[in-house]
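Per reviewer request, we include the raw input and output of the structure prediction for the construct analysed in the revised manuscript.
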Amino acid sequence: MEAFKFETTILENGMIKIPNFQKFKSKKVEVLILYKIENEQEIKENEAEEFINKWFGYFPVIETDDIRYNAIIGK
C-alpha cells in the first residue's frame, strides 16, 4: 500500500479535489478524512472562559469570621 498526503477543502457539492489525480485514475483507493481544527488552543480558551462565566458567582464568598460558619466548622 502506498500513502499520499495532501490538504484540500471539501467543496459545497461534497466533491474533494485531489492534486495530481492522474496517478490514481481508474485505481481503487481507500480514503481517510481527518478533520483539521484551525486553532485548537483558542477553542480550549473559549471553553474555559464560557465555564467561568457560567459558574462565576454561583458559589457565594464565605465569610470565615461569620458566627454561623464557625459554628458549622466547629470552632
